[in-house]
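Q: What structure does this chain adopt?
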Amino acid sequence: MARIYYATNRRLVAGARVPFGNRYNEEGPAFYRVGYAEVDRSPAGVGPDDAFVLRSVMVAEEHPAPPGALPSAEIIGSTGVFEAMTQAVRGESREVIAYIHGFNSSFETCMLRAAQIEANWRIGGKAPLVFAFSWPADDGDGLGLGESAGTESKWKYFGDRDDAEASGKAIGRSLRRLIDFLLELRKEDRAAGREPCGQKLHLVAHSMGNWALRHALIALRGFNSGARLPKIFTNAFLMAADEDADALEHNNKLGLLPQLAEAIHVYHARRDLALIISDTTKLNPDRLGAWGPRTFDGLDSAIYGIDCADVCGTELGHGNHQYYRIRPEVIADVRQVMAGKGPDQVTGRVPVRAGRQYRIKPGRGAATIEV
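A:
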């Protein structure tokens, strides 16, 4: 059974099996709750979309200090959650992945996809610990633009886009809390004469989650009073990004990300039907997840483009948009990057522009490559 830690600015639904719905936290979109979900393999699963089942969700207790009480009387849910994460990482030497889902995804779907990442993105035989942020996308059907298949409507797309943008401050706050917690742990380790925890932290944003990430970065810059952001992620994986192709060129888009991550990997596919629809029917500019970065001239040298056009096909209803969690060739590529291989050392790639752009070849599965 997998334990997926989470933060969400969805509204708490008391007494429900899945305790978070598709509206904002009652305090507003900038407020979030934390906890963990238990997810198990589904005995009846026949495909990648029903391979896991949600067993339970724990919502961490939190409340402000009572009137007249000391500030220490306040219960902050994220403290206990991050401490539990730290114990798991230190005790089992696991990598950590922060995950932001895309369009058309319920809280439950987010937990199931996070469990799929945990199961597939193993390094040295060890599953990573996944911390997922679930913003209040509407769940339901969607032609490849989201996590499920079926029919898609414009109002749902634009509604989710607005929700993703409004969630940027909550995502930024949760990342700020994570950053502060990690810095405090390192300070405590130094004071106690311990070796700081050396496990790597990675960021994964899928589809419209990259639009949400844009606004989280802007919020983080505000929280930091414009100061440079701390580099806490080893890798940032931008998967099928429903973002502008020039996003990494501008600080009011994703241009701040190189401050936060040592390396940025843009996985894209020109055959991505979801992004073709986003491009042609939603009046959006060329998509980062379709064509990759508009140009590499002037971009940070640690930004790489990974062309998945030959390995993006999965199920028909996915619209060539879900390869990041399903195609074994892409999974194998990601695992090698997480294991520390340089861009020219990753098996299964061919260079398009050595040192910057690569194409994944079909046929090499994750099971055939040891990392």
